[in-house]
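Dear Dr. K.,

Following up on our conversation at the group meeting, I've run the structure prediction for Phosphohexomutase from Pontiella sulfatireligans. I'm pasting the input sequence below exactly as I used it, so you can double-check it against your construct before we proceed with anything downstream. Let me know if the numbering doesn't match what you have in your notebook.
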Amino acid sequence: MKSQLYPMTFSPVYKDYPWGGSRIPKTYNRGMPDGIYAESWEISDHDDGMSVVANGELAGKTIRELLQASPQEIMGTAVEGTKFPLLIKLIDAKQKLSVQVHPNDETAAEFGGEAKTEMWYMLGDNAAQVYCGLNDGVTRESFRQSIEDGTSGDAMRPVPVVKGNAVFVRGGSVHAIDEDCFILEIQQNSNTTYRIYDWGRMGNDGQPRELHIEQAINVINWEDRDSPLVEPVTQVDTDSFQCSEVLACEYFRLEKLSFNAPLEVPMNGKTFHALFVSEGEATVSWGEDALTAPAGTSILVPAALPAYTLNGKATVLRTTIP
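The predicted structure tokens came back this morning:
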């Protein structure tokens, strides 16, 4: 299968969580019927939403089928096994999300569930706010009391955000996304969420959504006081190409690439490149083939590809494994 591999696009997997809006299909002209599109799982090897190839001769195959046949050729030598290590999604929070927490590697091993460290890259033109981490002085006992009082939202640290900001949410950090946030989320491949408080909201079935108080208390990192806002590091700054490292952690690395001239990108076999065109329109070419990628397109470039070229005038967010 190695000779068949090429940069792949996937059919998005949409989620209609009750807090969502319709910004994703409208912003990126996806031609979807009216409805709630809270999340779009762009690249996912998860039972709760499996990516299916949309372009080329592999169209119709799931990402899991491809990974089981050619794991190293797709993911690279930095990834062991056959499971894609990340889940990449778009989030449109028309309403605020629940107060929640995810386990980290250690607490997932101890208490169960899937570990999830994530980051949010803000895509919306509007100023907004998220919550990440607990305020100084909040303890296990005082937080449990705030849950009982329905005031746990007040215990979290508010973080004002604007377009281009990046927020690092470690497993164990209590967090929530406020209303009117439009986000690209990069995360460990997990769908474990322990919901602490849901602002009195009803689910799509008209009933309150399930809470997971004890699980949450067990996995919260009570010592987490680090600032979640991440400062990008400029790596290249020329007239035709700018590149900055937005975030690098042990699970993933995100870079922002802006270009207005052809840019050849070599691959070294260590990692895949997951591309998201956040602005403009890019052409991705390899060998004698190419695909056009308007804003809102996600592309998985297999690690085995020797190189590819980006062209056009665009901004691309590139996720790799460090």
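Two things stood out to me. The radius of gyration is 20 Å. The chain has two domains: 8-230, 233-320.

Best regards,
J.T.
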